[in-house]
Amino acid sequence: MLEMIQKIQIYMEYPFVKNALIVGVLIALCSSLLGVTLVLKRFSFIGDGLSHVAFGALAIATVLKVANQTILIMPITIVAAIFLLKGGQNVKIKGDAAIAMLSVSAMAFGYFILNVFSAGANIAGDVCTTLFGSTSILSLLPSDVIICIVTSVVVVIFFMVFYNRIFAVTFDENFMKATGSNTELYNCVIAVITAVIIVLAMNLVGSLLISALLIFPALSAMRLFKSFKAVTIASAIISVLGTIVGIFTSILFNTPVGSTIVMVYLGIFVVCSILVAVLHK
User: Fold this and answer.
1) CB 167 within 8 A of CB 183
2) How far apart are CA 251 and CA 87, in angstroms?
3) Please, what is the Cα angle at 132 between 130 and 134, to 5 degrees?
4) CA–CA distances in Å: residue 252 to residues 132, 164, 220
5) Cα(172)–Cα(248) distance, rounded to whole angstroms?
6) CA 154 to CA 30: how far, in whole Å?
7) Is residue 206 left, alpha or beta, with left meaning phi > 0 and alpha meaning psi from -120 to 50?
8) Mean per-residue pLDDT for 204-214?
């Protein structure tokens, strides 16, 4: 144990580890706040769908050799999020079907154009890194950290200021409409923020594992608490702690960052489930 602590202290002297922790904690915090709302609205797999859309957009940016890929990925993902959370409710293709269709199509499209048009020598390696977040969280630029900090502050402030309205939209959207509140506006803002977090989270866990950031902390907290406020706070704590443990475990044992974080989340969920089962006997 002492040897592991000393090893962690040595690694903490490196800027890339500090950057990974800062970004990881902020993304985990924002994902947990949005995750509770998305799970309760039965839109928990939106992270999966939007991450695949982001992968498709990343493929386009790679083929076009766009210098700052976020400029292209972010707006495409935001448009997809608005379609899924807002427009998707008013068309014949409803929520889960729209997510499945968009998710599969975007993933297939992205992999197709990468193979057909990319001039890279290691396409399989690049795709694997994008899908599972193998090393990108440990190679963040200072600009990436600044963008993440600014975005996270905006998300947290929005959630705190509009907490009551988010609560109402989550549990009784029809009642909010009856009182004259603009529910479409709040749903649209939630969609945009979700898309932004999804794009940022690609560096943390990769495209295929993003939904774990939204789902596992919220579900674990729901096993322990019943009120929306308690679940939200517990979800944030679980998410942040799980990410920190996952990053350090990955560094110490040389395991993939994204997969390790998700396995930690899974372990927390299992422990919470067992704890609840024992207490209710």
Assistant:
1) no
2) 42
3) 85
4) 19, 42, 26
5) 40
6) 10
7) left
8) 77
Distance between CA atoms of residues 206 and 238, nearest Å:
20
Query: What element of type H or E holds 97?
Result: helix 95-117
Q: Note the pLDDT tens digit of each residue in 51-89.
A: 888 888 888 887 888 767 778 888 999 888 887 765 555
**Reported pTM:** 0.84
Which residue bears the tokens 């839109």?
Answer: 43
Structure token digits, residue 34: 């949005």
Residue with tokens 């500090």: 18
Place of tokens 């807002």: 86
Read off the tokens for 189. Answer: 């803002």
Quick one: tokens of 276? 């609840």
Q: Which two tokens stand for residue 258?
A: 């994204």
How many domains does the chain divide into? 1
Domain assignment of residue 88, given as a range:
2-279
The C-alpha atoms of residue 48 and residue 84 are separated, in whole angstroms, by: 12
**CATH code of residue 70:** 1.10.3470.10
